[in-house]
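so i finally got all the pieces together for this one. its four components total, 1180 residues if u count the protein bits. some of the lines might not be protein, just check the labels. i wanna see the whole assembly predicted at once instead of chain by chain like last time, that was a mess tbh
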Amino acid sequence: MAEVGYVGLGVMGGGIAKRLLDAGHAVTGWNRTREKAQPLLDGGMRWGDTPREVAERSEIVFTMVTNTAAVCAVTDGPDGILAGLAPGKVYVDQSTASPDNTRALAARVAEVGADMLDAPVSGSVITLEQGKLSVMVGGDEDVFNRVLPVLEAIGPKVFHVGPNGAAVTIKIASNLQLAVQMLAFSEGVLLAEKSGIPRAKAVEVLLGTVVASPMVTYRGPFVLGQPDEAWFNVNMMQKDMILALELGRQLDVPLPTTATTNELLTAARGMGLAEKDFSILFEVLAAMSGVGAAS
Amino acid sequence: MAEVGYVGLGVMGGGIAKRLLDAGHAVTGWNRTREKAQPLLDGGMRWGDTPREVAERSEIVFTMVTNTAAVCAVTDGPDGILAGLAPGKVYVDQSTASPDNTRALAARVAEVGADMLDAPVSGSVITLEQGKLSVMVGGDEDVFNRVLPVLEAIGPKVFHVGPNGAAVTIKIASNLQLAVQMLAFSEGVLLAEKSGIPRAKAVEVLLGTVVASPMVTYRGPFVLGQPDEAWFNVNMMQKDMILALELGRQLDVPLPTTATTNELLTAARGMGLAEKDFSILFEVLAAMSGVGAAS
Amino acid sequence: MAEVGYVGLGVMGGGIAKRLLDAGHAVTGWNRTREKAQPLLDGGMRWGDTPREVAERSEIVFTMVTNTAAVCAVTDGPDGILAGLAPGKVYVDQSTASPDNTRALAARVAEVGADMLDAPVSGSVITLEQGKLSVMVGGDEDVFNRVLPVLEAIGPKVFHVGPNGAAVTIKIASNLQLAVQMLAFSEGVLLAEKSGIPRAKAVEVLLGTVVASPMVTYRGPFVLGQPDEAWFNVNMMQKDMILALELGRQLDVPLPTTATTNELLTAARGMGLAEKDFSILFEVLAAMSGVGAAS
Amino acid sequence: MAEVGYVGLGVMGGGIAKRLLDAGHAVTGWNRTREKAQPLLDGGMRWGDTPREVAERSEIVFTMVTNTAAVCAVTDGPDGILAGLAPGKVYVDQSTASPDNTRALAARVAEVGADMLDAPVSGSVITLEQGKLSVMVGGDEDVFNRVLPVLEAIGPKVFHVGPNGAAVTIKIASNLQLAVQMLAFSEGVLLAEKSGIPRAKAVEVLLGTVVASPMVTYRGPFVLGQPDEAWFNVNMMQKDMILALELGRQLDVPLPTTATTNELLTAARGMGLAEKDFSILFEVLAAMSGVGAAS
């Protein structure tokens, strides 16, 4: 069993930390607001006063934060993770952030003799609870093999994708499809509903067809009633769409469905729905077609 | 066991007829070109000289043809199915055609005392081979229950969706998502590939994420090499997109991702790829981003 | 001066008939509702009891009606224009209708020894009032030259475009740009407005830039206040977009901005704005961005 | 007559500097490559060794450079314009850059007691040659009035739009329409061409319709043959589209036609056409529809 650190204990990060604890690893954690970590602390996690302290106490230190800026906030400066790394340690970033930033960070980690991997996951809260996350990993293959036993505690499927930045690139390439699939699903549901099929029946039948990806399967029913708290809100989803669109411009890849869908995420924000789960795209489209929203 | 008829013995129709034979039903079949039906005839299917004769010999007669015009061609006229129907018989159309036409046809079938169901399937050749088709059924619920045992020989999942036209509407609502999901997947693969990840690796990893619908799972690998024969070609896919877009206009439902994707299907035709499987959308996008196509 | 007939005396058709009268031609007119024609009758126009009678009394008979179906309604049957044509007469259709229908109609007109031209105009009520219409003409060049003096009474700019159907094709190719330009203009105005520039100022300044087409110049100000009656409503505009999209599919031309804009016209209908001038696209976009509409 | 400075003597900046000289102003200029300025120097312009020196010698100093970064490069540092400003002087930026940067720059200019205006122009080389530029101005109204006589030497139409950043915002709101109008025009031309109308005829007739904005009028003919040197290339046009899209996200304004068109600019880059005039969008669309490009 390993000495493991986890920085960023939100819904996903916290859930992963719990899986690591449950697997028998010693976990030291840090979060911007300590109170959110209380259940984990009750379950045996130790507290680190700064990201640096977490890194100092761990062989492997993970981060899972909101965006590129938040990654910088926990890695840089005197209290940051980089200040706590040392030769032999591995820093694993599970955030969805800019691949360019990931590569730059990996170079700085290498300067202190440590190693870095980018290791985002595919899935949502429910996937995590079901123990079905898949972990995509970018970085040196030897380092990957060294950390693999710990990563397997997070998700049953662990893929080595390529060098640093490769995994976060694939994560972006996957996430753009989340929003597009959700909007296309909404188009289908509204067509069915306005032709007289009850919305719940349309959802049920569509989830029995070959378009029912795991994401559509767990998020599609949200068009019948939104969750109390967003699993992944419009702002977060749009952040990832913009990462995709920026990458597309950088690499000269036109992204027609991504661009189209992204403008409807902007509409969601315009309509005051920025904090809703991004499945609220259904409601944007419903408003455009004169259909009242799900209550 | 029932006396069953099957008109339209292409890849899907023929495969379904085989399942009906395998389940022990007596099957009479008809196809525009008889030679395609030879393996079924060798397997015990009887031949009807016209769609009308198939209907005359059957309690339940199925059709699975290309489009609305082809449905009319096998139902109308002196040799058509309507001429062979009689009270107590059930006509089941499995084609993806215009819901308005389906409803009109159901009314004409009712005039001769027979019943009609629309019963398209979700899935492709591979889904059929795996015995995982789902069948969506529109029409009277009593008639549905009467025919259910036969439908269950086609697919394990059989849904009653609503009145006549409802199932074909849901099929259209599902099919629009096929093309959109495929284009979004292509966007993701190209982003990954142009950032340095081998295409095959990108496909493998993306198929491990929550966007991997059954359709993406079986069709996604086509971006690594197209099948010898299209499973569902660009022309057929666009026919369904246009059914969706027409329905959208009729019902005032904006379909942003459908419309965007449909124009790239048009581009596929412009580039001479009309007969290719619609996963060729990848190649259209690749051409737009200056990437050579898969050989 | 010529004996001229005019069928379809709406805002545009009526305005053109008036110009023909003012130029000294003898005009016989017909309209579905006679009362709308009263001012023209007061101004010297004669009334024909049927489209056929109008054709019988005229050397050149014009039509300007809503769509392809309306063209058929005034040309076909015992009271239709075709029944009143004879060798030497010219039938000039100014409607925006399907080019295929135009060509089929031209062939039927030729069968009775008469000639047909398609001659749609570019411009709106205001262009007509300013005497700045341009007339695009499809058909035989000799026939064109024969009719030219009369056409020059309609618009100062008269172009011979090509054979039958060519002019209506160009009209469609022009009209798709109307809606796209209006939506792009709306995007610009909303960007300016939400960044703090008063809407009226944004419109004024944008109309001073190189994007100010004649159409944007007269229709752009509608975002500050809609006209009492639509100059060209959402339904009519969408009819032309669909003619363009159908032509695009027939000819394998992808139409990305047309398709995108057309879905927002559908949204306009979904929001109950079908009868508004299509500049109401601004209001659709404003609703999507959380901005209240112009009063 | 005023002491005027001009930094950035490219095609547009150089042309404006010439107009200022012709109007009788004393002009000091600077450009990254001096040789490009030779004709102006021959015409009486004085040379400043650095942007700072230009500012020191002038009452009003203009800049017209490529993008936000280039603005920073000529304003910042020991040789930058800010170092040469002093109370009473006015700095006028004519570049299309980020409105946020413009406002930040205006604040820094105010700190040294000088004033700043943003004053982009609408139009292209040809508009400049015809003396038909329009100048949009953001900043304090008194300062605007002080500088007005000099601005009127640049363009006959000069608008005060609002506070700092307002003019560059309108410029972005106008420029997004350039690319969209060009793509919509290309859609129209290709429809006409593939239906059998010669491309040159289609262009001629479309330029006689109400969609012919000044920009479409001078750039539309490029689909018949590209200029030797781009008037405004794909990279520059996309830079402005991205400014628009970023502003859209910041202000919650969905930009459907902008987003759609921007992806085709990316395709242009993917196809190796980044340095071509952005009217090359026609060629991208032509390739998608299987039509060979103009030679």
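The first strand of chain A starts at residue 3 and ends at 7.
The CA atoms of residues 41 and 47 of chain A lie 7 Å apart.
anyway lmk what u think
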